[in-house]
Design a protein that fits this description.
By secondary structure, the protein is mainly beta. It has a single domain, classed as Jelly Rolls (Sandwich). Helices cover 11% and strands 41% of the residues. It is built from 2 helices and 12 strands. Helix 1 runs antiparallel to helix 2. The radius of gyration is 15 Å and the shape is globular. The chain starts with 12 loop residues before the first strand and ends in a 6-residue tail after the last strand.
Length: 158
């Protein structure tokens, strides 16, 4: 059964993410009956994900603003503003931001990937713990919760 969900920007959970970027959880599995997760992230030049793979969901990106490099397996793709990327589950991938800033929309089906982001990121509604950091170790631990596998460090621009 489809659910109705309506929210204003101020209602979205905001998480500190890679390189101090901000990720907003727009729709999660609870809001969509498990059908979809939608996330919007503002990133900056050099921000990069580790090489990873999702076992539970397909992932889609749309660059609302800016550009980046997306690796799909060993293939490297430059994606500019307005470009889209579709990544079926169980496919290793990574990205690195190449413009000064990026506004990135991420959709995952089915929903649930937000468990990973919430487990690794810092909820900006809460005071930041003195020892909080988004490290490869915290991401690997969160990946277990979210059904992902971290396969390696971020790739370089080359």
């Amino acid at each position: 059964m489809s659910l109705t969900y309506i929210a204003q920007a101020s209602d979205h959970q905001r998480l500190e993410w890679i390189g101090g970027s901000v990720m907003s959880v727009l729709l999660d599995a609870d809001a969509t009956g498990g059908q979809l997760t939608m996330i919007r992230t503002q990133l900056k030049r050099g921000d990069a994900s580790p090489v990873h793979m999702h076992s539970n969901e397909d992932e889609m990106f749309m660059l609302l603003k800016g550009s980046g490099i997306f690796w799909v397996g060993e293939d490297r793709h430059e994606v500019d503003e307005g470009g889209v990327v579709f990544l079926p589950r169980n496919l290793p991938h990574a990205y690195r931001i190449t413009s000064d800033t990026v506004d990135l929309l991420t959709l995952c089906t089915p929903g649930g990937v937000e468990k990973f982001f919430r487990a690794a990121g810092h909820d900006l509604r809460d005071p930041k713990p003195d020892n909080w950091a988004l490290t490869p170790a915290t991401m690997a631990q969160a990946a277990i919760v979210g059904g992902q596998t971290i396969l390696g460090p971020p790739k370089t621009d080359a």
